[in-house]
Amino acid sequence: AMRRELALVEAARGPAAPQLSTPLHNLAATLERQGGDAHLAEVAALLRRAVAVHERASGARHPDTARALLRLGQFEADQGRHADADALFARAASGLDAPPGALPAGRAEVLAEVVAAQGRLQLEQLAYARAEPLLARAVALSTEALGADDPLTGRRLGEWAAALSGLGQPERAEPLLRRALAIAEQHAGARSAEAGDALNRLAALASSQRRHAEAEVLYQRALAIRAASWAAAPAAAYPAYRQGLDTLAFHFQAQGAPERAEPLFRRAVEVTESRQPPDPAALAQAALNLAENLRAQRRPAEAETWLRRALALETGRLGSDHPRPAQLQGRLAALRWTQGDAAAAETLYRQALATLAASPLADRGDSARLLDDLAALYRATQRPAEALASRRRAEALRLQRP
Question: Within a 10 A sphere around the Cβ of 394, how many other Cβ atoms?
């Protein structure tokens, strides 16, 4: 239907008509959701064509052209082509970044979008020093175009704060986050998803400053909001709810309270199991988190049950010759040894090492660590010659690492 709409508009208006922009972007969005290399290549072509349509119709300095460049840049960023995305964002910004009056009145709003995208791209690459001035400017532009209390301004305050936190400047980040929370509560409500996100960012900042009691309260407030959202709309709210469960659980573990983390990890398994369609990768990670929690509580038999489930899921998803199942086999070997089964542990270590040795995707560091563990097992079982051989193999692998 979308291809037909595009063809009809093209037939009626011509191949360079500005009216082509909407069907081009709609078709691109549909194909992007479908995924696959062939579809993604067509998405890029459609978005480039939309840029060309706007440049011909309105010129390189028009806000509509900037928006088309922004959409193409966001697609390139999603594909991991950061340099291409950065260049497209820069083109969009340069077209808009002119003296006031040279462009339509909406210039500041569109420029704020573009500059924010530039900043987020740097933030995603942990380039905090490059991200910070861009995100600060995005806030200023958004304030100018939309107002200091607009929800988009609040969102950009949070992004600016993230850059400042990355630069080790929490004292500058915190007032921005508190302002973002106030805006979210004002516009969307104290129990909105936006307020939950803002609370979670504040909690992370407090935790980074070792204000652990304050962080816990904020994490709990955020999680309560996300739990209510999940109950109302499970599919839409799952990512934030799962993140909130994991975040608070890991917070408890870092404070030396794995018993408080356990029910949260179990809840994460439950909500991930309820997803439709199933997500084996997410479920494997939830099972692994619970296994590691139980191991930390010195309950190896229970930990083994969940680790075996994670291993089965990852093997089914990736195949038995992939490094990921081999890494989990190594963890399973350690659990078997903890329970006194040295023979089973040795077998698992050898199987994992054989898989890693045969896989072009494997990291030599993983093999070296498993060899160290195997050497320790040999020493504990009075096999010094084999222990020495394993240790030397591990050292040789480390010397080969780039």
Answer: 21
The pLDDT value given to residue 354: 96
pLDDT surpasses 90 at 29: no
Question: Using omega within 30 degrees of 0 as the cis cutoff, is the peptide bond preceding 18 cis?
Answer: no
Distance CA 273, CA 276 (A): 8
Query: Which letter does DSSP use for residue 212 in this model?
Result: H
The type of residue at 8 is L
- Taking alpha carbons only, the member of 321, 297, 318, 293 closest to residue 307 is 293
pLDDT digits (tens, 9 = 90+) for 103-117: 455 788 899 999 999
**Sequence-ordered list of residues with C-beta below 8 angstroms from that of 379, at least 6 positions apart, any chain:** 387
Structure tokens at 114: 């573009």
- What does pTM read for this prediction? 0.81
For residues 307 and 288, is the Cβ–Cβ distance under 8 A?
yes
What is the SS3 assignment for 324-386? HHHHHHHHHHHHHHHCCCHHHHHHHHHHHHHHHHHCCCCCHHHHHHHHHHHHHHHHHCCCHHH
